[in-house]
Here is the input.
Amino acid sequence: MRLPRVTAAALTAVLLASAPSLALAQEPDGSDSSIPSSSTEVTYQSADSDLPETTRGNQFLELSIDTVAPGTVTTSSEPFVTVRATVTNTGDRRVDDISVRMQGADAVDQPSELRTSLSRDQEQYPYAGEFQTVTDSLERGASTQFTVSMPLRSTTNPSLNIDRPGVYPLLLNVNGTPEYGGTARLDDARFLLPVTGVPRDPSDPTSVPLPPSTTDPVATTILWPLADKPRLAAGNPGTIEDKIRLVDDDLAGELATGGRLDELLQAVEFTTTDQLDPENRLTDSMCLAIDPDLLVTVANMQRGYLVVDDPANPSGPARDGTGSDAAAAWLSRLQTLADSMCVTAVPFAQVDLDAIGNVGDATLAASALESPSDIVDSILGVTSVRDVVWSASGQLGAPAAAALRSTGPTTALLADNSIAPAAAGGVAAVAGGSTVDAPLNTTVFDSASATALAGVGEVPSTPDFTPEDQRYDLSGDSRAARLQDAVGAMFYHALEEPDGSPRAVTIAPPQYWTAGGDEPTTILSSVSSMLRSGLATPRPLPSLVAEAPTGMPVETRTVPQVDRDTNLEDRVRAQSARIESLRASVVEDPQSALTPRLFTAPLREDLLRALTTAGSDTDPEYAAAMSRTRMDASETSLDRMFGAVTVVAPGGVYTLASEQSPLLLVARNDLPVPVNVRLKVDAPAEMTISDVGATALPARGSRTITVPAQVDDSRNLSVDFALTTLDGQQLGEATTVSVRSNAYGQALAIITACAGILLLLLAGRRLWHRFRGQPDPADEGYERP
Here is the structure.
C-alpha cells in the first residue's frame, strides 16, 4: 500500500467493537460510500483516518496485482482492461463479504505525476466500476484469486473514461467485513496503464479507434546495464596462474540459465533478432552499459575459481566454485552480441564518484574512470563508446565534478532533475588544491522513468535523485504492478502532447538492476513497440554524446553528503598511496608476464569495490559492512606484502677488520615480482654509512648488500637497518646490528705518529754518526763476520 498506515486508535477501537451494525463512513447526504453510484463519476468523502488494521497492527486484507491485460492498450486491443489479482487475509480474524471494483483517473499530464498519482487518495480516482463479489468468506492466512474487468470508454455503462492516448492511473479497491466489525475499505492496489491508441467503443456504433500522433516522434536512447555487486575477495594481488577467489558463489547462479544476468542478456538477444527488429531500430537506440568489474570477474571464473569460507579472511580456507562453465557461456554470448551493437563502460564497480572526488587521488580516479573502457575493449574485443561517465547515483557533487574534469574532456550522464544551468563560459572546479578548467559536458536521462525502472525486479529501490514527494514504500506493490508502472513511465514522453521543442529521452535503469524473468523482455519490447509504431526514433549513444547538450554548460546541484563515511575515505586514501609506492618499486621483468601494473591493479581495484554504490540503496547495512570487510582485508594483505621484503638479521656481533671495512647485509624478497629497494640506516655519530642507492631484489630471492662504513670508535655500536620503497615507505621490520671495530681511533693515531717520529730520530742518528766516520754506540760489541 502507498497510503500512510499510522492508523487512528479511535477507528480501530470502533471497528473492533462488538456492535455488528457498524457501517462505512457516511457521505454528507447520508449514503453509504461503499455502494457505487449509478453515475460513472463517483466522488468520496476524504477520510482523516487510514485503512483499518488488526490488533496486531497489520491490515485485514492485502491486495496484489498478478496480471494486467492488455499491459499496453493499442487501437487493436480489446475495448476493456482485465486485471487478475490475489487478495490475502493477513489479519487475525475471518473477513466476510469481500468485494472489489476498479477505478480510474485522468491521464497523467506531468512527469512527476507518474509517481504522485499512485499515492493519491482513492477518492481522486473518480471513474469507478461496480463492486463485484470476490468471496463470501476468507479465513486467516487464506487467499483467493479473482479477475475484474472494466470498459475503457462507454456511453451506456461505467467506464474508465479513457478517450485519448496517454498514461492512466488505475486502482483496485477491496471492501470486506472483518469478524466482530463492520464493512470497510480494507486495501487497494494501483498501477499505470499506457494507452498508445484507444480501441473503438462497442457501445457507440459511430465511434472509431483513436490512434496516437506520430508527427513528432521522440528521439530515444536506452542504456542496458550489465552489472553486479563486487564479488572478488579483497587483498589478493595480481597473478598469472593462481585461481581467483570470490566472497560467495551467487554469481554462478546469476550467469546460469534463468539467472538475473542471463535473463538481462537474453532479453537483448531476443528483441534484437532480425524477426523482431528487422530495421535495427531497437539495436541502434540501445547501448550495453557494462561494469568492467563484472567482466574481470567472469573472465577469470572461466579457468576455475575458489569461493572463500570467510570474506574477512580472503587467503583462508576455500572451496571450488561451480560457475566456470556458465561464466564461459555467458561471456561468449556477450562477446557475440557486443560485436554488433553499441557498448560503453560504467565506472569500475559502480564506484561512488563523490567518494572518489573526496579521496582526491589522481591514480585512483584514473582506475575508476579511464581504465574501464580499456578493460571492456580488451575482454570483449570491441571499441566502446568513451568519454562518457554514467553516474550510478544519477547525481554529481562538486568533488565528483572535479574528479571528472581532472581526467580530461568528459560527458557526464546524470538525472535530468540533478542539474541546473550555469553561467556562460563554464564553471571551474577545484581538485587537489588546483583549479581545473577542463570542460565537463553534461547530458541527462529521464528521472521519472528511471525511478519507475528502479522499482522493477526482485529488490525494488528508490534512487537518490527521486524527490521526496515522489517516494513511497514499494514493498506493498506486486512485481506485476511495479512493471506496469515502469512501462507506463517509459511511454509517457512518447505520448505527451508536443510543445514545439525538440523531443528526446534517455532511458536508464539502475546500473545494478534486479529485474528478472519476463521483466527485461517486457521493457525492451515496449521500447521496440514505440520505435515500430512511429512514436519514437532511434538516437544512438555516440550521437547523444557528440551533441552539444541543450542549455549547457551546466553545474551540478549540491548533493547532500550526510551519509559520507569520512573514515572509509581516509583509509582508501592512505591505502592508495601505499599501493602506488609499491607499484613504483616493482621491477619490470622481461622474463615474466606479471608486470607491475598487473600485480598491483587488483589491490587498487579493491579500493574501488569498497566505495561501490551497488546494493547500497537496497541493503545499506550489508553494503557498508562489506566495504569495511574489504578495507580490512586490503590493509592486512598490503601489510603482509610490505613485510615480505626485509633485511635478514645477521645475529651476534658484527666485527669489522678495520675502521673502513664494509658491512655485508642480506636483503630478502618473498614477493613473486622483483622489487627495487633503498637501505635506510640509523647509525650513531661515531659511524658513517654511505648511501648504496637503489638495489634490485629478485622475485622470491635474496641479495647481499655491501654497505661502505667508517667507524671511529672501537666500542660496540648499534645500527638500525631497514628497507624502503623508492619513495621512502618502510618495507618489513627494521633490523638492529651490533658492530665492533678493531679501530683504536685517536690513540692509535698518536701511537703511530710517535713510533714514526722515533724511527726517524734513530735513523737520523745512525746516518749522522756514519757521515762523521764515528762508530755508532749502538754497534758496540758487534763484530763483522
Summary: The chain has 19 helices and 33 strands. Residues 24 and 184 are 6 Å apart (CA to CA).
